[in-house]
Specification:
Strand content: 15-25%
Distance between the termini: 44 Å
CATH class: Alpha Beta
CATH architecture: 2-Layer Sandwich
Low-confidence stretches: none
Number of helices: 3
Shape: elongated
Largest sheet: 4 strands, antiparallel
Order of helices and strands: HHEEHEE
Strand order of the largest sheet: 1-2-3-4
Number of domains: 1
Length: 152
Amino acid sequence: MIVIAIVGILAAIALPAYQDYIVRSKVSEPLAALAEAKTTVAEYVAANGRFPTTDATAFGINTSNRISTSDITNELDVLPSSLTAGEPVYIVARVFTSVWDGGEKTDGETLSFQLSGSTNADGTMSWTCLPGEGNAKADPIPTKYLPANCRG
């Protein structure tokens, strides 16, 4: 009887931790997409010495809706749409809420995390991973599901 009680207690602790681990592993897909977009932005800045003067779409990042091709990432976005010198650029990954709540994936039902990039005086870029979207950090993914370097 004691063995069964111990196994029950261990299962009660291990199952939620394992479920959180599974969700964090799924969030690696949008993190990989953000890394690709980060490289694209850094290459643009290295080649031109500045952000685009028109709008963020000039970076060439694929921001199209991915509802038909991904069960995890709904879309990437670049904010703000009109860039200003000296201001950071945000590359946002919007993740379907179905990843952690187990429901149906629905276009627009997303929470997000982002990479915030700013240019340095020497022409390089510095990147920070943040929860939420844009300067206001709106609609963040719950902290326990974020990659370790995005929980700040």
